Amino acid sequence: MGLAEEVLELEAAVRREKACPEILMYESDLIESLIGQVESREKALRIDPITPEEQFRGLLYQMDLDRVKYLLSSYLRSRLVKIQAYALWVVRQDDVNFLSPQEIDFLTKYYSIKTNHFKKTFLLGLPNDLRSLESRKGQRVIEVSPQLDKHVFIKVIDDVGRVQTENSADIYLEKGDIFFIPYNLVKPLITEERKIDLV
Amino acid sequence: MHAEKSKKLVRELKTSKWLPPYNVALISEISQDMASLYEKAVSDLEDRNTDSALIKSSLVNRNKRCVLAYLNYRLTKLECLRLETGPNIPPHFSNQLNKDEMDYFKQYSALLQDYSRKVSKSLDLTGDLQPPKDVFVEVRATEDVGDIVLPETGQVSLEKNTVHLLRRSEAAGLIRQGVLQHIN
């Protein structure tokens, strides 16, 4: 895949990540390859231009690089925002393979500074039995988990056919259709089969 | 009645534009109430008065939830502030925070920088919040800063109301600190 296609891929990934209520699989190959290319091109740009043409070309390249960097950071940022919002829930999951190693690292540290803050400001002033963040049923007191039945806008990129909805009315998804439906109804079609895109 | 104070605490969040001043007095009052309620619940249990104990323990839990929600909401606001204005808290915001929250802000800020560096040295996660339009931006200085040296442009003397053409990457931080104003 060339750089141009990868950037398009990244744009789609940013859009998906922003529209999706849960944290999607980290696009490790794509992100790593793009970061590598951005870094090497930036290095190449740092060599001082000699002629005005080279200077001009350098500026154009810089502009394009800045755009790719913006996309990259907004992809990573929108994931971080979700990781923070669901932090108390994510740390309890057994399987966190949807996060990158750096994100897992971020999450662990984030969780510890956050719970520390709760302890310092409030929980340590309580009787011993009340200090835990967990209530009796094993659920965290202020845990927020992704709201999977949230409605999302979808665009069908490949014919899917019949999909059963909760009130047992069927809908037909054909290429090019745009729907507003609960996320968990079409989740596998988005994450695994890639027949539907979030818009 | 017993949860009235926590209700007030949570309501405070709604009444202010950004965050209300940290209400340390109310939180410690609630903690004391919780402790005494808890004691009563335990003694109720010893008297085998389970109904009353149940009510008291759910009151305790409700109070706890409210206070934690209050604290959590404030932290979330702080995280947004970090993303939007950079690693320094503007003075009119810092008045509303208590010392622990300032500490949290610093820790969070360091954590974010650390993550950003680990992913890539050439990315700044909090740099571009809007898609970039041009390599250069025209900016006007809003206060006297004096001479500063920027990595690409070289030396610039930022005096009040002077207009400069700077690299966007260099100006972004200063714009968010409020030193420069974006004018095109």
Q: Main attributes?
A:
heterodimer, A: 199 residues, Methane Monooxygenase Hydroxylase, Chain G, domain 1, three-stranded antiparallel sheet, two-stranded antiparallel sheet, 5 strands, B: 184 residues, alpha+beta, Ribosomal Protein L9, domain 1, 2 domains, 13% strand, elongated, GINS_A (chain B), GINS_bundle-like_dom_sf (chain B)
The description of the largest β-sheet of chain B is: 3 strands, antiparallel
The level of helicity of chain A is 40-55%
Structural class of chain B: alpha+beta
Strand and helix order of chain A: HHHHHEEEEHE
Q: Structural class, from secondary structure content of chain A? A: mainly alpha
Number of helices of chain A: 6
| Strand coverage percent of chain B | 5-15%
Description:
The complex is a heterodimer of chains A (199) and B (184). With 199 residues, chain A is mainly alpha-helical. Among the domains of chain A are: 3-85, Up-down Bundle (Methane Monooxygenase Hydroxylase, Chain G, domain 1), CATH 1.20.58.1030; 147-199, Ribosomal Protein L9, domain 1, CATH 3.40.5.60. In chain A, 52% of the residues lie in helices and 11% in strands. Chain A has 6 helices and 5 strands. In chain A, strands 4-1-5 form a 3-stranded antiparallel sheet. Chain A has a two-stranded antiparallel ribbon with strand order 2-3. In chain A, strand 2 and strand 3 form a beta hairpin. The radius of gyration of chain A is 22 Å and the shape is flat. Chain B is elongated and about 80 Å long. Chain B is built from 6 helices and 5 strands; from the N terminus they run H-H-H-H-H-E-E-E-E-H-E. Chain B folds into 2 domains: 4-119, Up-down Bundle (Methane Monooxygenase Hydroxylase, Chain G, domain 1), CATH 1.20.58; 136-182, 3-Layer(aba) Sandwich (Ribosomal Protein L9, domain 1). Chain B is 58% helix and 13% strand. The N and C termini of chain B lie far apart (56 Å). Chain B is α+β, with helices and mostly antiparallel strands. In chain B, the strands form 2 sheets. A 3-stranded antiparallel sheet of chain B has the order 4-1-5, covered by helices on one side. The mean pLDDT of chain B is 83. The A-B interface holds A 35, 38-39, 42, 59, 62-63, 66-67, 69-70, 72-74, 76-77, 80, 84-85, 102-103, 105-106, 109-110, 113-114, 117-118, 120-122, 125-127, 129-130, 133, 135, 141-142 and B 27-28, 31, 34-35, 38-39, 60-61, 64-65, 67-69, 71-72, 75-76, 79, 83, 98, 100-101, 103-104, 107-108, 111-112, 114-115, 118-128, 131-132, 134-135, 168-169.
